[in-house]
Design a protein that fits this description.
alpha/beta; globular; 209 residues; five-stranded parallel beta sheet
């Protein structure tokens, strides 16, 4: 029997960084050790969230303004935190989230050039002040990351943004990691899938011990 404390962890990164794949690997690893795990994602994770995900990512014909995009993501997060994350933490489960508040700060703040202070305040409000205990930033060169998208069955609206947008995303993430080095751990996602997971697993083992 493994005793756990409420614990949240997020995977962040630009397009093609492999964060979704690595989150699945970690969930499997923790479950094999007996830890109760909840895997979730943003946008999504709830009925409302999945509807927002479909609208904001896959409706390419929708001309979504930067402010409207921000509020859609915030609405998703407010529902997600209330319906999924907080109940899971109250039940002493580990929450592994594919994207969380950092994505909003980077994509809508840094890359969309919305006022960062306002985005920070609204993001904090939507998340009820919740932050992950640890965040892994899977960092990869923009061109390499985007080249990986060619293997996907479908692309989303953000995938189709110009390289300059994705470069802003990467720079925004690295700046955020520099400002919070104790929480955000940068992983070289240009390595093999196996090597990336080994690096993540080492950090997780140290944390759990």
């Amino acid at each position: 029997q493994v005793t756990t404390l409420p614990w949240t962890r997020a995977h962040e990164g630009g397009e093609g960084s492999g964060k979704t794949t690595q989150l699945a690997h970690l969930a499997c690893y923790l479950e094999k050790q007996g830890y109760p795990v909840v895997e979730t994602r943003e946008p999504g994770g709830t009925l409302i969230g999945e509807a927002i995900r479909s609208l904001v990512l896959y409706q390419k014909e929708v001309d979504c303004t930067s402010k409207a995009e921000l509020f859609l993501y915030l609405a998703d997060r407010a529902q997600h935190v209330s319906e999924v994350i907080l109940p899971a933490l109250a039940d002493h489960k580990m929450v592994l989230c594919d994207r969380f508040t950092d994505s909003t700060l980077v994509y809508q703040g840094a890359a969309r050039d919305l006022p960062l202070r306002k985005v920070q305040d609204m993001t904090r409000f939507a998340a009820d002040g919740l932050k992950p205990n640890i965040t892994f930033l899977l960092d990869v060169d923009v061109k390499k990351g985007l080249s990986r998208l060619k293997t996907r069955d479908e692309v989303n609206r953000l995938d189709l943004e110009p390289d300059s947008f994705h470069q802003k995303v990467r720079e925004g993430y690295l700046a955020l990691a520099k400002s919070e080095p104790e929480r955000i751990h940068v992983i070289n996602a240009g390595m093999s899938e196996r090597r990336v997971f080994i690096e993540i697993r080492k950090m997780i083992d140290d944390l759990l011990q």
